[in-house]
Specification:
Length: 392
């Protein structure tokens, strides 16, 4: 059975009876009602289908247009990505270089510290050799010190004294066939008595006298209660080493005592910190007047951590730092860096005051504001200049 077209109209059968109030124009001559034919309507579903098809076609056209056009934005984004990768590579390379050079500087600093510790130990041993009359061994130790650490304080002077003493000893030996041998007085008390006294000194933390007692006991009988005596010896060396650095300012001796203690057992972190401070002080003192920048760096760190650490002359690290700043300022003035000299003099003046420093600041400020002409070397016409070799 064929389906009906929804657009077809179905004629309606006229009614035989007409209402009385119906308009006259709707009444026919025969008295029948005339019914208008309804207009045809388009299906709403067909309209929606047409609009959807048109929208799909428009989307497809837009997609084709987008695909056919070049993509400059993507290429631009790719360029930025390349630059970002290059920047990251440069940052990584710079970081690696900084880390490499930092590691080298740390290694060099540690090497200098180790050489200084060795030099200090040998210096103390050389003093013992001198006291024992072994000048030849003392000479060898002092020469070794100058080799590994040329600026070690007092090494050159002590070597000169040893050489003079050796010359005098050789002359005396040639004039006399017999040379009296001087021996240190030994403690004649029994080992047990010394050991008991050492235990009492350990209990009262009398470290200096404990060290003396243990040394006497070891000289008298090295085998007597060896384990216990070694323990007391270690504690005495460790604590007297701290006292020598912290209280007496005898940096070299304190470092030496730590080195001897380490032959028995490792020293603790506190003692090792005191040794580092002493090494830094000695290194700064060794560069005094030789390299003011190193001296400033060392004594600045000491000033920040322990400003009143002093050497056996009573010169504190604060005073050393102040004077090193002035010395560095003098160096800048001699190299015509007047503004750099103003900075160093100013730092020194913030810690101390003196007429000479004030005068240096005034001069440096004037030269920094209005630098004088750099002097040029003049040639003396009376002195013949060397001729340039042919072919050079």
């Amino acid at each position: 059975m064929p389906k009906k077209n929804p657009e077809e109209t179905i004629p309606m059968q006229p009614k035989k009876t007409v209402s009385a109030d119906q308009p006259a124009d709707l009444k026919g001559s025969s008295g029948e009602q005339t019914i208008p034919t309804p207009k045809t309507r388009k299906s709403p579903k067909k309209k929606e289908i047409i609009e959807a098809s048109a929208a799909d076609m428009k989307i497809e056209e837009n997609n084709l247009a987008v695909e056919s056009e070049p993509a400059p934005a993507k290429r631009k984004r790719g360029g930025w990505i390349g630059l970002g990768i290059l920047g990251m590579l440069l940052i990584i390379a710079a970081g690696a270089a900084i880390g490499y050079y930092s590691a080298i500087n740390v290694r060099k600093a540690e090497e200098i510290n180790q050489r200084l510790i060795v030099a200090t130990t040998q210096f103390e041993l050389s003093l013992q050799n001198i006291n024992n009359g072994d000048l030849d061994l003392a000479k060898k130790r002092l020469e070794y010190i100058i080799q590994v650490y040329p600026n070690y304080p007092g090494a050159a002077d002590k070597l000169a004294q040893v050489l003079v003493s050796m010359a005098q000893t050789n002359q005396t030996t040639s004039n006399s066939s017999t040379v009296p041998v001087v021996e240190a007085t030994k403690d004649t008390r029994g080992a047990a008595a010394i050991f008991t006294q050492a235990q009492q000194q350990l209990a009262s933390q009398d470290w200096e006298n404990l060290l003396t007692s243990v040394n006497s006991l070891r000289d008298l009988d090295p085998t007597y209660e060896a384990v216990k005596v070694d323990g007391m010896y270690y504690l005495a060396l460790r604590n007297v080493g701290v006292l020598n650095i912290k209280k007496y300012g005898n940096m070299e001796k304190g470092i030496y005592q730590f080195a001897v203690a380490e032959q028995i057992a490792p020293i603790d972190s506190e003692a090792d910190n005191w040794r580092k401070l002493a090494v830094m002080y000695i290194d700064g003192e060794a560069n005094w007047g030789v390299n003011w920048q190193v001296a400033v760096n060392n004594f600045y760190q000491l000033y920040q951590t322990y400003p009143y650490l002093s050497d056996f002359n009573g010169v504190t690290s604060k005073q050393r730092y102040t004077e090193a700043l002035e010395g560095l300022g003098d160096t800048y003035m001699s190299t015509f860096d007047y503004c750099g000299a103003v900075t160093q003099y100013g730092l020194s003046a913030s810690l101390t005051s003196s007429e000479s420093l004030s005068a240096k600041i005034t001069l440096a400020q004037a030269d920094c504001a209005n630098p004088p002409a750099t002097p040029t070397p003049t040639v003396n016409p009376n002195i013949a200049t060397p001729e340039t070799p042919v072919g050079s």
